[in-house]
Give the backbone structure.
Amino acid sequence: MFQASALNDRNARIQRRWRLLFLVMTLLLILPVAIILGLLVHHGAPVISWSFLFEFPRQGMTAGGIFPALLGTIFLVSLALVFSVPLGIAAAIYLSEYARDNWLTRAINLAIINLAGVPSIVHALFGVGAFVLFFRFGTSILAASLTLGIMALPVVIVSTRESLQAVPRAFREACWALGATRWQTIRKVVLPNSVSGILTGVILEVSRTAGETAPIMFTGAAFFLPFLPESVYDQTMALSLHLFVLSTQVPGVPEGVPYGVALVLIAIVLSMNALSIGFRMVLRGRKRW
Amino acid sequence: MVGPERTESGGNSLLEVDDLTVSYGRHVALSGVTLTVRQNEIFGIIGPANAGKTTFLQAVNRMDQFNDAIKVDGAVRFMGRDVARWRNTFALRRQIGVVFPLPVGLPLSVYENVAFAPRLRGVSKKADLDVLVERYLRRAALWEEVKDRLDTLGSMLSGGQQQRLTIARALSQDPVLLMLDEFSIAVDPVTTMKIEDVLRELRSELTILLVTNLVQQARRLADRTAFFLDGSLVEVGVTEDLFTGRARHRETVDYIEGRFG
């Protein structure tokens, strides 16, 4: 008859304790998320209505809605995507599929990692210097989106490259052996099998970009505008800056309003995340190996 | 483009390898290999692991291009031209079909796996592709088993079927040379026999370079056989001679008789 020794029992006891510790740590992680969301919904939900979403702010932003800020955020994020996605995906394809392993490639990789580590306020100053002043775009949607786009670029490149690398090399070799060029291999085998990962990266980029405040503060986002922008050379309001302004700069704002703005902002971010998870699940279901 | 040239080494040689040396960084995988493969023969390559057999195949179809660490010296002449001088190596690889040790089905349907190479060379009409897909699947002795499920993923087939699928795919390139790298490693004995029959039939149409881990397979199929050991070519001979005690080197005899491996 098998009998566990005292040492076996002790090891099992210790292992249970460690498991409990890790579980507690993990649960602690959920706590801040739950509290933030709870507070936002509790204070912000009563404020939200059609008129809150689709009206202009009135009476020194203490009343009315957030429509120009909401629309401005959508403009900024979309334009930032237009710049960063094609550039980022192209760069990732080059680095993953074409680049040889030499000093230049290593330097580029290092640059990308560093770019990802640059604080957003530094990106803002770069945006002012490059787009607002040097290219003379002025403080405008164009300058702000370009700044956001550059900030997002490393994220797109890294996530795209990782999705490409996840396609087994054996597929590429089989394809090359058939006489396919590198481009034919990329188009027919690599891209179709990495598109879910690439899309996920892009959507996560959207959620990150939507919340950024510093890079747009000096480059194109306005404190308050009584009208909607007419071209990319105009300034715009944006949700993130609007939240900052309402919370710190304007006296007499009803207590629920900043919570309402924050709730809208976080709803955009979370719905984007949900979309990316959904995408991944659908496309993973069709995964072919 | 220069057509195939006649050379002094037999007039009908397809592949002439002259003092081929391949190294990965400081590790020399293959050194000083010189041999000739004639048209329409099955040329066997035997030898233990790390003998340089796979490396040899990679040097023939210029797969070294995709790996910066590989350095190739010496000359490989295919259809009379040094493969290092083919400016369009993709065109070179279209002439050479490859079958890997483990079947690599592209993540496509059975049909699309076989239609892949014809599409690359510009066949696009469905009716034409249908004909080609059936022809190559038949030739790889797979058609009867998959004709009702051409739309399923190649990777859903059994291991032996997948390996025949990769053979059909290699044949769909309409290659001049077919290189098989230990194709029977992941294949059951019955399928192995089916594939060997296929290869015997193919001999009339193309040249086959058969790297094999099974000494007896080389004996069954190959007209001539080369024995590789530790990155060197020990000897090349008519297969029957090697297997009937007429090998010139002791290592060859020992390997064939299973005294090491």
DSSP finds twelve helices and two strands in chain A. The longest helix of chain A spans residues 6-44.
